Amino acid sequence: MIERELTVSNRLGLHARATAKLVQLLSPYRCNVTLIAKGREVNAKSIMGVMLLAAGQGTPVRLRVDGEDEAVAADAVAALFERRFDEDQ
Fold it and tell me: 46 with 52: CB under 8 angstroms?
């Protein structure tokens, strides 16, 4: 299992477009991916789950990845967060 601390840094936070990008990124991976924020724990492969986090800019998020391709998936998610979901350019 891999855990990482991330911060939502894009201006609009985890809104619909950013969440869809995250879920689409994770769809080919076989591991379980969980996001934890504001006391909630959700399946990161679920658009509705991630939207329920209501994570705005600056929200700290813990990423937990467990399974067969966990390292690659964790790196991909961290890179997406670091790129601000390709929105703030």
Answer: no
CA dist 34 and 44 (Å) reads 5
Consecutive H or E run containing 73: helix 70-82
Q: Is the pTM higher than 0.90?
A: yes
| CB neighbours of residue 40 within 10 Å | 12
The three-state secondary structure class of 15 is coil
Contacts of 82 (CB under 8 A, 6+ apart): 9
Q: Which residues are catalytic?
A: 15
At the topology level, CATH places domain 2-86 in Histidine-containing Protein; Chain: A; (3.30.1340)
pLDDT in tens for each of the 89 residues of the chain? 999 999 999 999 999 999 999 999 999 999 999 999 999 999 999 999 999 999 999 999 999 999 999 999 999 999 999 999 998 65
